[in-house]
Amino acid sequence: MPAKGAQGVEDPLTIAGREFRSRLITGTGKYPSFEAMRDAVIASGCELVTVAVRRIDLDDVGEAITDWLPEGVTLLPNTAGCQTAEEAVRVARLSRAGGLPDWIKLEVIPDPRYLLPDGEETLRAAGQLVDEGFTVLPYVQPDPVLQRKLEAAGCATVMPLAAPIGSGRGLKLRNAIEIMVEQAEVPVIVDAGLGAPSQAAECMEMGADGVLVNTAIGQADDPPAMARAFALAVEAGRAAHLAGLIDESHEARPSSPITGLVTS
Amino acid sequence: MNVVCNGKPVELESAATVERLLAELGLDGPYALVERNGQPVERERYRETALEEGDRLVVARPVAGG
To answer: Which of these, A5, A64, A130, A192, could form a disulfide with A154 (CB 3.0-4.6 Å)?
Structure first.
């Protein structure tokens, strides 16, 4: 029988009752051009892409990102730039009123150096937005206690950071995220800090339900090629998780028989 | 009529609406998001929402972001 090689993973990622074939979510920031962004989104195979919401510069309107996004992808507006729950709720309401989806990637970030989210404000905003009918995907520090509170508040996912946004440092906060994965009642999407496809695969092997990647793709020399590399890594990592990884051993365990040696 | 849009004064004909403001600014695409005096305006009400002298408006849209 020939080896089957890599196969598509059939199990969908389900968020708030909606199924996604791809477990990779991509951001649209930091690309050298809208064209590169569009090509990378297509190459990634992702179905959900994040966007920020900003005032239009009336003196320089420029092009709209929505003219460049491939058909069929769903926009996930974020609240990047908001430092309080009130600001985040305001942006979410504006987005939905104007016709964007009622899904919101909730970010409340008061710290400009490490861009670490404020869990207390995030929880407050999440409760408010869930009450108003939003599907809330909060960006959080890996905190299993906060995770429980966000789940109880009705969040559709929790999105812990692997490392600071844009840092490319990889799965630095693995131990806490592992606990989150173990006790999760809603999908755990690792968001931020991944720099290489191998790191995305590591998240998926660990049991994360998905990953969100932006900078590592947008700032690559060839964004569409890197998008495809991340897509493959996410698929490989998920397949490995489902296949069941072996337990680690400190000592070697021979792969060949230790008896019947030719030289014995 | 004078309103303030994204912090800048804008002069409009009388009887202006949110929809006419967006058309005048060349922003009548599918994703112009509007806040009037701190309150979000529902897209389906852009046509009927009349502006008043001194209104403060925010017009936003989706942009590249992570």
So the answer is: A130
List, for residues A190-218, the tens digit of each pLDDT value: 999 999 999 999 999 999 999 999 999 99
pTM (predicted TM-score): 0.91
DSSP A246: P
- CA distance, residue A53 to nearest chain B CA (Å): 5
Q: What one-character DSSP code corresponds to residue A65?
A: G
Quote the crossing angle between the two packed helices A223-243 and A34-44, to the nearest 10°: 20
Whichever domain contains B50, its CATH number is 3.10.20.30
ipTM: 0.94
- Residue A221 has what DSSP assignment? S
Interchain contact A76–B (C-beta under 8 A)? no
Q: Which of A4, A30, A105, A172 is catalytic?
A: A105
Location of structure tokens 């058309």 = B23
Domain presence at residue A11:
no
Number of domains in chain B: 1
- Give catalytic status of residue A30 as yes or no: no
Give pLDDT tens digits for A42-95.
999 999 999 999 999 988 888 899 999 999 999 999 999 999 999 999 999 999
Tell me if chain B has a CB within 8 Å of the CB of A54.
yes
